[in-house]
Design brief:
The chain is built from four helices and two strands. It has 136 residues and is an all-alpha fold. Strands 1-2 form a two-stranded antiparallel ribbon.
Length: 136
């Protein structure tokens, strides 16, 4: 029994059909259909995550679904009280390392110490204004 590809314009045929697919397609067009379906699904997800709702009732459902997806992602990241904290992603790990190395740099340490001294001095001056005549 030979089958012909059902894709428009394709004339590829086969006599060996492993799976009995009703609308049989050659390997090239079957994979193309899978790719297109995957791309469409991903683009729909991207639209949903950006908050853009399609007009009509379908848009509202999709917006609700995206809200549910966001909430489930947040729950996965935070967990419930008592759970082990979620493991940070590789990006978060790298950003945390960069943040720490920046905070530990001599320039930042010196700047923060200077700011702390200025703040302490301001607090001291405010106390002296509030309670004149007493030394702290």
């Amino acid at each position: 029994m030979s089958k012909t590809c059902t894709f428009e314009g394709c004339s590829e045929t086969t006599s060996q059909v492993a799976k009995q697919r009703k609308p049989w397609m050659c390997k090239k067009h079957r994979n193309k259909m899978y790719k297109d379906k995957y791309k469409k699904k991903k683009s729909d997800q991207a639209l949903n995550c950006s908050g853009a709702a399609q007009p009509g009732s379908a848009g509202n459902v999709r917006l609700e679904e995206s809200t549910d997806n966001i909430l489930s992602i947040v729950k996965q990241r935070t967990g419930t009280f008592g759970d082990r904290p979620a493991r940070p992603t590789l990006l978060e790990q790298v950003l945390n390392q960069k943040r720490l190395s920046l905070l530990r740099s001599p320039e930042v340490v010196q700047f923060l110490q200077k700011q702390q001294q200025l703040l302490n001095q301001q607090v001291l001056e405010q106390r002296q204004q509030q309670f004149p005549g007493t030394s702290v």
